[in-house]
Design brief:
It contains eleven helices and eight strands. Helix content is 53%, strand content 14%.
Length: 279
């Protein structure tokens, strides 16, 4: 039977692939050129690994792109090239945190190669995928929803590219903006020796914010680069619409700083134990 390809098997991709596999779908991916962690996740999830993108296009009629924001366009180009080489036309679902204009750019790449494009965006965490929603828009959205449900809840937003990616990037703007604000406030508190005290105050008067910081900040550094890229996409969207993008640009810079300073593990992340005796 035709397979569903998940590219790639990061945290979200692995969870989506696992749920589709358990629902009876044949799920494939490629791990060549990916990190050791990505390859290990695919192996542990029992996902079938193919040799290259040509084999993906030959064996899968549906490809779901779940990469970093800056990796979305290059992957689409590579899949389009594979379609050209193999002569096979597939449905390509763009599921990344990108701006609507980037989604439309990818639509052009895929349709020029004879494929069908569906705009998408998963809102919800990989660890709680049962509560997440895969929003879809585009001419083929209904057919894609039928393929992935009930493994993943799907909601159709409309028939245009950019609708689903727009919803996702705006949702990301709130969570990443709050993340960046928390980083700045708590780094300041940590240097003043007031981390425990300010977190106690937040828990008392802003319990939702305190819970958010405790959930998001401890493991932020390895994810911060991707989060920064998302904010660059949001900044681009706002500027295209003639709006100011002060907050998204500031969040981008804060998250990039976290990735550069703490992402490699060379410096101690002060919020690793936040909420567990560390504030």
């Amino acid at each position: 039977m035709d397979a569903i390809a998940i590219l790639s098997t990061g945290e979200m991709g692995t969870q989506v692939a696992g749920r589709l596999k358990r629902a009876g779908a044949r799920v494939v991916t490629i791990v060549a050129g990916r990190s050791q962690a990505t390859a290990k996740r695919a192996e542990e999830a029992g996902i079938e690994c193919l040799r290259d993108l040509d084999e993906i296009v030959r064996q899968a009629d549906l490809v779901i792109s779940l990469v970093t924001p800056f990796g979305a366009v290059p992957l689409a180009r590579d899949v389009a090239a594979a379609m050209a080489r193999t002569g096979r036309h597939i449905t390509f679902v763009e599921g990344n945190s990108i701006s609507p204009s980037t989604a439309c750019e990818i639509e052009g790449i895929i349709t020029a190669a004879g494929g069908q494009f569906v705009d998408g965006g998963i809102i919800g965490g990989a660890a709680e995928l049962d509560r997440a929603t895969f929003y879809l828009s585009g001419e083929g959205a209904q057919a894609v929803a039928a393929r992935i449900e009930p493994a993943v809840k799907a909601v159709i937003l409309g028939t245009r590219a950019g609708q689903s990616s727009g919803l996702k990037i705006l949702n990301a703007g709130l969570s990443k903006g709050l993340t960046a604000l928390g980083v700045e406030l708590l780094l300041c508190a940590e240097q003043l020796g007031l981390l425990s005290e300010i977190m106690a105050r937040y828990r008392k008067g802003r319990s939702g914010a305190a819970e958010f910081f405790e959930r998001i900040l401890p493991d932020l550094p390895p994810k911060a680069k991707r989060r920064s890229e998302e904010m660059q996409e949001l900044t681009g969207l706002m500027e295209e619409l003639g709006l100011t993008a002060h907050t998204s640009r500031a969040a981008e810079k804060v998250l990039a700083m976290v990735a550069e300073r703490y992402g490699s593990g060379s410096a101690e992340w002060p919020f690793r134990d936040l909420g567990k005796g560390g504030g």
